[in-house]
Amino acid sequence: MLRLLAVLVFLALGWAQEITVLTHSSFSLDKGLIARFERETGLKLRFLKGGDAGETLNRAILTKGAPIADVIYGFDNTFLSRALEADILLPYRSPEIQNLKATLLLDPSFRALPVDYGWVSLNYDRAHFKDRPLPKAPADLARPEYARLLVVQNPATSSPGLAFLMATVARFGEDGYLDFWAKLRDGGVRVAKGWSEAYYTHFTLYKGDRPLVVSYTTSPAAEVYYSEGKYQEPPTGNLFPELAFFQVEFVGILKGTKNLEGAKKVVDWLLSKPVQENIPTEMWMYPARRDAKLPEVFRFAPEPVGSVRLDPKVMAQNRERWIAEWTQVVLQGQSPEAVRRGRR
Amino acid sequence: MARLAGLLVLSFLGLALFYPLSRILVLGVGEGFAKALANPYYWERYLWSLEYGLLSAFFTLSLALPLAFLFRRRFPLREAFLALSTLPFVLPTPVVALGFMALLGPRGVLGVDLYGTRALLFLAAVFYNLGLALRILLPVAMRLEGPMRAARVLGATPFRAFLRVGLPLLLPALASAGLLVFLYAFSAFGVPLLLGGPRYATLEVEVYTLLAYRLAFPEASALMLLEILTLGLAVLLYLRFRPYPLPPGELLPASWAWTAGLAIFFLLLFAPLGALFLQADPRALASAWASEDFTPLSLALGNSLRFTLLALLLALPLGVAYAVAARGSRLLDLLGLFPLMVSPVAVGLGYLLAYPAWRGSLPLLLAAYALLAYPLLARALLPALRSLSPNLLQAARVLGATPLRAFLRVEIPLVFPALQSGLALALAAILGEFGATLVLWRPEWTTLTLAIYERLGRPGEAPFKEALALAALLALLSGLLFYFLDRGRGRWG
């Protein structure tokens, strides 16, 4: 409260230059790092959490006329085209770009700079499957005995949900993915609104009743890290690298920022080595920098081989349709044939 | 002066309501309509909204009708019960939703989990609208004794007298009450959003989802258009029903037994609120105050109070101007009712479309608040103003007062109690506003209602407890506000 008051007073008097960073709700960085940045630059950082990554981006688009922040962090490759088309970002060729992994530079106009990446992946609860067989192939998930063990996120309201949907499109094809989802639906798959609801209330590891959950490849490592010694080995595991979806998160400067120089400093800082090396254990994504070292616990988070990568253009063209079709089949109970007929 | 006031109200309505609605219309008809209507999913949403509205009206009426007959009697605490029955109507939707979660949710007091079922949604609708229906039915029910007694004198059994005389006389009031409940339930937002999940999303919730997650303006507009058309139809119907002119009746005698019976009924009715306060933990309030994970309560409370006061500065003159202008003009009377028909989400959507350059600016949010609140204020003021004798004003004029001075010094003091009631309603509406705020929101503007929603969006015990505590606080605030300003007079209509 006091800090807030202080921020407000500073704002009113215009003493400290404040930079607002709009983030998704999973954003987190070491407090010491933030304090050091503020001391060194004289800038004051304020982090605004706007909900799910997609929701956050939409909020930025809806407030284009009077931007709510100077920098936006965390929209991903599934939403990249929307951010670029809405024209809310300023191009910035950060000097740090040369240090980033080249494959992540998906926006040639340099308005969206990659800041981290990772994989959305299926996790399973080891305790539950100790004496029970795991599904052998992605298609097995659709069998009733596995479908009723699975919780996914609604792709309309959750970015890992959307990523998993896109993975199924890539794996089963434009026609097959709807049949796969129809079988999941009939088998009793559960749909949660967002990742944290799925993971923390429906997943068996957290007293839910679903031992299969859509999460991230790094989640098992995170479980070890946060267990404070309780787990030497992850209590969960990754399933089906061929269903893992490659996700890149971006950072960008919002058009209309009142402090362009400050915003640039924040972007450079986010791409700097100390922050990049802090990202893995704070947000459980991989650093975009080539020279950033991974923490030891990431040995439990191997990069999946043969994961799904979709062309950003294909995603941009089909995203809305996939979500609509998924909604029709899974939430509304229409048959895949009827939905496919509706395409024409 | 009435003309000037009319001009003021009309220009506000034009900018803050009709122009934004026209943008929805243009976009909805132009791009989205065919696309949206070709999708059976949206039709299902529409049918469910209809069903929710109709069944809510049915359930509410089947409870309100016997209740109205009970209230024909004079018994101790009758007025207090009547005042209590309208309380839910001024409660913010997140408060009601949290109340039902505290009672019948996954961690509910009763241990029965109805979360995500239709039953819970209908219960909430009845809770919300019962007082409203009762207020409409009661005046007619009280006038039935004369005609029904006449029927019995002529040889009808009590049942037959009710069926052939009482019920037909009640029909217009039943229809009005039913249509009003339908209006509110059909366009409900907060309760289905928080209690319903994706399966029981009403059109209103669907429009919000389309906007917030997919930015699908054309489809959102098309659905909103469908909703507005349906609401308009219901309003037209509503306006057709006029009560039969009956001589006023008198209260029938009754005893303490009535009081006891109704006390039990109201205890049951208010069980959700009871559960809310039972489950609200003051420690959660303390942890919410300076929360690091969510908007701190200190900020949310400040925002709520600040916005409410600012919006009131706009709504008060508008409400008074409208009441003055509508006193002599039937057309204005109808036009001014319009904001009551459009939903908050529609207003938010319309503003985003009509004023893109102003997106994310405070005047837009305040205009939405004022638009949604001023009719409530005016509806309370209007009957009082109409009942004033024109002689008073003329006397003041003859004695040398200007029209404005005569209005301020003679009429306003005379209608002051009504003004206070109206103010209480308007304040409660702004304080508990949810839909428009959610659409027009900026993160630093998080109000109490949004702070509750934000915490509900995160799983786990701690955020849920904070949400409960915030809801209890909001309920207390609205209740206190209402008590001090209105004191249960409640002469709105």
Overview of this protein structure:
The complex is a heterodimer of chains A (344) and B (493). With 344 residues, chain A is of the alpha/beta class. Chain A has 2 domains: 2-117 and 247-300, 3-Layer(aba) Sandwich (D-Maltodextrin-Binding Protein, domain 2); 119-245 and 305-339, 3-Layer(aba) Sandwich (D-Maltodextrin-Binding Protein, domain 2). Chain A has helices at residues 2-13, 31-41, 53-62, 80-85, 144-147, 159-187, 195-202, 219-226, 260-270, 273-283, 312-331, 336-343; strands spanning 17-23, 43-49, 71-76, 89-90, 113-125, 150-153, 190-192, 212-216, 236-239, 245-254, 286-287. In chain A, strands 1, 2, 3, 4, 5, 6, 7, 8, 9, 10 and 11 form an 11-stranded mixed beta sheet that branches. In chain A, helix 6 (159-187) packs parallel to helix 11 (312-331). Chain A is globular. Chain A starts with a helix and ends with a helix. Chain B has 2 domains: 1-30 and 287-493, MetI-like (MetI-like fold), CATH 1.10.3720; 39-247 and 258-279, MetI-like fold, CATH 1.10.3720. In chain B, 78% of the residues lie in helices and 1% in strands. A two-stranded parallel sheet of chain B has the order 1-2. At the A-B interface, helix 3, helix 7 and helix 11 of A face helix 2 and helix 10 of B.
TL;DR of this structure?
The complex is a heterodimer of chains A (344) and B (493). Chain A has 344 residues and is α/β, with parallel strands linked by helices.
Characteristics:
heterodimer; A: about 350 residues; alpha/beta; D-Maltodextrin-Binding Protein, domain 2; 2 domains; eleven-stranded mixed beta sheet; 12 helices; about 40% helix; globular; B: about 500 residues; mainly alpha; MetI-like fold; two-stranded parallel ribbon; 2 strands; about 80% helix
